[in-house]
Amino acid sequence: MPTVLITGANRGLGLEFTRQYAADGWRVIATCRTPEQAKEIHALQPGVILHRLDVVDFAAVAALGRQLEAETIDVLIANAGVLLRHDMLPSAIDPDAWMQSFQVNAMAPLACAGAFLAQVARSRERKLLAVGSWVGSIGANVTGGYYAYRSSKAALNAVWRSLALDHPEVIAAVLSPGRVRTEMTRYDGPGWNALPSPAERVSNLRRLIAGLTQADSGGFFHHTGETLRW
Question: How far apart are the two ends of the chain, measured CA to CA in Å?
Fold first, then answer.
């Protein structure tokens, strides 16, 4: 039975990844900050194992890695992320929101990869995935704005590319789900209801993950399978 580890598993894309992998018979190791509030995940047990984890508590991330050092993890999905102060202006920078964006969106995924690298490397699939965003593409930026989120996701791209180069024993890639109807995008107002559901996009992403090969390591992919510009 293959095993997947998912961070930020209590809502949005993370919850949908958990549901779909569990429904397909995978053993799921799910993490979130408040397991006692994760009612949807508890309903999926015993096929889902839930751990408390704040991904920006790097000591806790390392400790969970040691706790699960005997595991074999086929797929790790560093999904936890934040979109803070999307309306930030150059004339009104919020340094706390910007730093938190970098901690959650760029630093935490690398910490998770480091904590579970050995468990993934000895698996059959050997896949380390980070959920990024097309907004992190510098080459595709034609709209501006989103300073904290955009820069933190661009940093994630750089981090994951280096991870892939430093660790050829795994397949490391960044995946962009596009805009999805989750709490993260609810600020979009009337346009929010027209966005695709997490179920649809996660299905696409899972097909993409299943088809990744060593030649794809270090890549940045849209949910359609298209290679995105850095």
Answer: 35
Start-end of H helices in the chain: 12-23, 39-42, 58-67, 95-102, 108-121, 147-166, 198-211
pLDDT at 183: 60
Q: Which stretch of DSSP H or E encloses residue 3?
A: strand 3-6
Domain assignment of residue 148, given as a range: 3-222
The one-character DSSP state at 196 is: P
Structurally, how many domains does the chain consist of? Answer: 1
CB atoms within 10 A of CB 206: 19
Q: Tell me, what CATH number does 36's domain have?
A: 3.40.50.720
> Is the residue at 147 inside a domain?
yes
Using a cut of 0.85, tell me whether the model's pTM lies above it: yes
Q: Tell me, what's the pLDDT at 65? A: 98
DSSP 8-state symbol, 70 = T
User: Which tokens belong to 135?
Assistant: 């907004």
Give me the phi and psi of 202, to 5 degrees please. Answer: -65, -35
Beta-strand ranges (E) seen in 54-204 are 75-78, 127-131, 171-176
Position 228 in a domain: no
Give me the mean pLDDT over the 72-81 stretch.
Answer: 97
Q: Is the peptide bond before 46 cis (omega within 30 degrees of 0)?
A: yes
Question: Which whole number is the average pLDDT over 91-95?
Answer: 95
* Bigger pLDDT: 165 vs 85: 165
Q: What sign does the CA torsion over 133, 137, 142, 146 have?
A: positive
**Which neighbouring-strand residues pair with 220?**
174
